[in-house]
Amino acid sequence: MCGITGWVSFERDLTTESTALHAMTETMACRGPDDRGTWAEGPAALGHRRLAIIDLPGGRQPMSLSTPEGNLALVYSGETYNFTELRRELTDRGHRFTTDSDTEVVLHGYLEWGEAVAERLNGMYAFAVWDGRHGRLVMIRDRMGIKPFYYYPTSDGVLFGSEPKAILANPLARHRVTLDGLRELFTFVKTPGHAVWDGMREVEPGTVVTVDRAGVRARAYWRLETRPHTDDKDTTIASVRTLLDDIVRRQLVADVPRCTLLSGGLDSSALTAIAARELAANGDKVRSFAVDFAGQTENFVADELRGTPDTPFVHDVAELARTDHQDIVLDAQSLADPAVRERVIRARDLPAGFGDMDASLLLLFRAIRDQSTVALSGESADEVFGGYLQFFDEEARNADTFPWLVRFGRHFGDDNGVLRRELVDSLDVGSYVADSYKKAVAGVERLEGESDFEFRMRRVCNLHLTRFVRVLLDRKDRMSMAVGLEVRVPFCDHRLVEYVYNTPWALKSFDGREKSLLREATADVLPKSVYDRVKSPYPSTQDPRYGSALQDQARDLLAQPSHRVFDLVDRDRLKRAAETDAPSGSHAVRRGLERTLDLAQWLDMYSPELVLE
Question: Does pLDDT of 302 surpass 90?
Fold first, then answer.
């Protein structure tokens, strides 16, 4: 896992631009604390920061190859889980390797198959190859968008990086956000390719982007496709388990300490238990970590989203799987610490609005990083297997909008409630969401003979796998890489995603419960408490002192009437939120405070040029 960046300029000799390349590369230091490297030749310059996971001494980057027609140079972020098989195939084809790293396998794979190498990779990756034979840059991102990848076309080439901050460090990139960028910030739709910053784009998941003197071109090498599912229930359950066993085995490969993230829910519990079995065969124990909040279990209050505290279920799994377990217990003061908020915003480059759930994730990962370098996460199982409440909510799944927005609206209220009324009118978020929804569902293919209900649920599943999950994957990557922790997501293996996506909804929920297939496929390794547990989202603190701390910070902000945040935020609404009793009792009030403080922090740190008309 690493941070990559680079610059292609067909009108310059970039060997003279080392200062700019160095600045871009160093923004990725948190993603790669173990090593740094740069490479430049004519119109191309590449930068790399390394987090060493496999072949610690041999995987240095940028990595290059010389051919009679010209040089190849690669910067690579991520992991290729089938690199051993690919290495054997390439060796049989005459390639010779000098390291044991998956990076060298990808580079030789490109030499052998060109950009079609992407179709052979199983993993999470974002990489760029400068192909000196043809004078072009090739950028490739993994199928599900696990690893982030951004680019910024210029007048004579392109800038790129794992995160926007790498691009923004180059003087050619404008720190500019228009109304269209703010629309993306204040909706929860994750428009493919949209990067919020004006002029910047994401390399879309499952896509190859090529840059040469003729311009920028994109080609999708993978997308979710509708196919018939012919397996019966028992065969489907068995196939899911077979896939999971293989996926976890592959994703446990590392030359550094590994662990699992354990929430006590079905997803993380299943992964932890399977990993424990795999490691036990070699006489090893799996480490597991869970986040908790001081006093949360003893004082827990059930609500619409969370019916039970996590910790008792976490401990049931840890005991059954015999993991080396540790709870990371956080207090309200840490969660509300402005210094933590600053690190969150720096990690995400945007005021994303997850509040204490971002802060706790960052603090959890920071604590884990002291003991492990690689962690397996249950992220995306809800999208793959159908675990969210909106999958079973008639209003949400029948609405002509993104189903999660119906649920969020009930729970959090209007996400634009903190903004000035004239800005809300200019944004016209309703039309933006409606247009985005139409585009999102237009590409969902219907299976011949599929009932109206099954097609409706296929669309709901597709939306979660192509829009919703990308928000959460980006969050998980940014918070983990901010502390140099590699988080792997086994449920995003494209083989599993393709198989379960095409399983009819009647089979996904054959017992009337969420994630029926996953529950039955892993029943033999789960404690009964977890097998019977109802879905509970990532935890959020219920400590009233957290809300009070937010109010104190909001009052400090109100004492700065000239702060730029008031170009966006309604001052009177913020004042009411800062003075209301028990802000933690109102999800909407607390979320409004968090969003405002995030916006203020972002404006202070990034000084973006805002175009509000």
Answer: no
Q: Please name the residues in contact with 554: beta carbons below 8 A apart, sequence gap of 6 or more.
A: 574, 577, 578, 593, 596, 597
Beta carbons of 163 and 150 less than 8 angstroms apart: yes
Q: CA 394, 396, 399: angle at the middle one, nearest 5?
A: 100
In three-state secondary structure terms, 128 is strand
Confidence of residue 303 (pLDDT cuts 50, 70, 90): confident
- Residue 8 three-state SS: strand
**HSE toward the beta carbon, residue 553, CA cutoff 13 A:** 24
3-state secondary structure of 71: strand
Q: pLDDT per residue over 61-89, tens digit each?
A: 999 999 999 999 999 999 999 999 999 99
**What integer pLDDT is reported at residue 584 of this predicted model?**
62
359 is written with which tokens?
């802060």
Maximum average pLDDT range among 299-303, 337-341, 543-547: 337-341
For residue 603 the two structure tokens come to 């404006």
CA neighbor of 404 nearest in space, from 91, 130, 187:
187
520: Cβ contacts below 8 Å, ≥ 6 apart: 237
Contacts of 218 (CB under 8 A, 6+ apart): 203, 204, 207, 208, 209, 210
- Res 59: pLDDT: 81
DSSP 164-200: HHHHHTSTTS--EEEHHHHHHHTSS---TTB-SSTT-
Condensed to tens digits (0 to 9), the pLDDT of residues 169-190 reads: 999 999 999 999 999 999 999 9
Q: What angle do CA 232, 237, 239 make, to 5 degrees?
A: 90
Residue 602, both tokens: 């972002």
Which domains are assigned to the chain? 2-220 (3.60.20.10), 233-387+463-532 (3.40.50.620), 544-606 (no CATH)
For the stretch 170-175, contacts whose Cβ atoms lie closer than 8 Å and that sit 24 or more positions apart, written own/partner, are 170/7, 170/20, 170/23, 170/24, 171/20, 173/197, 173/199, 173/200, 174/198, 174/199, 174/609, 175/606, 175/607, 175/608, 175/609
Q: Where are the beta strands (DSSP E) in 122-275?
A: 123-131, 136-141, 150-154, 157-161, 176-178, 201-202, 207-212, 215-220, 258-261
* Residue 1, pLDDT above cutoff 70: no
Phi/psi region, residue 193 (left: phi>0; alpha: psi -120 to 50; beta: rest), is left
Selection from 515, 526, 447, 445 nearest residue 240 by Cα: 515
Whether the CB-CB separation of 243 and 495 falls below 8 Å is answered with yes
Give the dihedral sign, CA 326/373/149/84. negative
| Contacting residues for 188 by C-beta, under 8 A, at least 6 apart | 402, 404, 405, 408, 415, 468, 471
Q: What is the mean pLDDT of residues 283-302?
A: 93
Q: Rounded to 5 degrees, what angle do the CA atoms 413, 431, 179 make?
A: 85
Task: Check residue 296 and report its DSSP letter.
Answer: T
Residues 6+ apart with CB under 8 A from 605: 342, 345, 346
Q: Strands, DSSP E only, in 274-376?
A: 287-293, 324-330, 374-376
30 in active site: no
Answer whether residue 412 shows pLDDT above 90: no
Query: Which bin fits 406, alpha (ψ -120 to 50), beta or left (φ > 0)?
Result: alpha
Q: Which two tokens stand for residue 117?
A: 């190498």
